Amino acid sequence: MNGWLITGAGGLLGRELRARLAAASVPALPLTHADLDLTDTEAVARAVRRTRPAVVVNCAAWTDVDGAESHEAAALRVNGDAVRSLARACATTGSRLLHVSSDYVFPGRSTMPYDETARPGPRTAYGRTRLAGERAVLEELPRTGTVVRTAWLYGAHGRNVIRTMAAQAAAGDTTLAVAHDQHGQPTWTKDVAGRLLALGRLPASQAAGIFHATCGGRTTWYDLAREVFRMCGADPDRVLPVDSASFNRPAQRPAWSVLGHARWEEAGLTPPRHWRDALAVAFRSVTAEGPPARRRPDARRPVASAARSTVRALSG
Questions:
Q1: Where is this region: Disordered (predicted)?
Q2: Which domain holds residue 10?
C-alpha cells in the first residue's frame, strides 16, 4: 500500500478526512477503534508493517477532558504511549505521521494568539497527555513527523455544538446560557481535513514540525451562539452570558484557545480562512439532522439551557 492509513477513522475528523481523501482519489485505509486498538503496541506495529503506508494520520484520542482528571494514566496510554508506539512503527517503514493534537497543551492565559513556537504549559491532565503525544512524534520522527493542533471542532458527522445551538434557536422562546469567557476559533472539520491533505502532499522537509489547523479570527462561545441564532433568524438576545465557573467541571477549560498560523505561509500554503467565512459555507450541512450519533465523552461543554441541563460540544 502506498496510500494513507487513518487511525480514529470513525470520529468527527476521521470521517471527514476519509471523505476528503476519497474526493481527491487518494487511496486510504480507514481504521476505527474496532479495527485497531492503538494501545496494543504489537497490533499497531503489525498494521503499519503490513500496509506500509506513505502517510499515517492519527485522528484517535482520549477526548474526555473531565474524565482525564481522575483517569490520567488511562488517558496517557491513548494520548501519549500509543502515539509513541505508532511513531516508532512509522519509523520502521519510513511512513510519515500526521498527528492531530489540541490547544489544551497551552495554559490558556494569553491575550495574543499562540504561535507554533510558543511554549506549552498544560493546566489539565488532558493537556498533559496531549503534550506527551506531541513530544513522542517530534522525538521519534524529527524529520517526518508532523503535529497538527486544532480546537473548537464542528462538523457534519455526529453531534456538534453548531447543530445544538441551531436546535435551541428553533425552540421557540427558550433561552440559552453560554460561556462568555472562553476565547477560541470555531473550526470546520472539512477545513482541517483539507489542511491534513495539503500537509501530506508536501515534501516531508516542509511539513515536519508543528502546524496550527484552526480557522482564523477569534470569538467566544457566547458570541458564536449569538451568530448561530442570527443565521437561524432567531433573536440573539435569547442567548445569555454565563461564567465558565458556573459549569463546575473537574477540568478547567482554557480561557484563551486562539492559535496563530505562521507555519502555513512558511510552507508555501494559504493561511486558514476566517471562522465566519467557514461557518457561512458549512452551516447548512452541519445543522442538518443526521442519524442519531452514539453518545461519547466530549472535550468541551460550553453551553447550557436555562433549565441548567448541559449540552455538550464535540472537540478533536
A1: 289-316
A2: 4-152+186-212
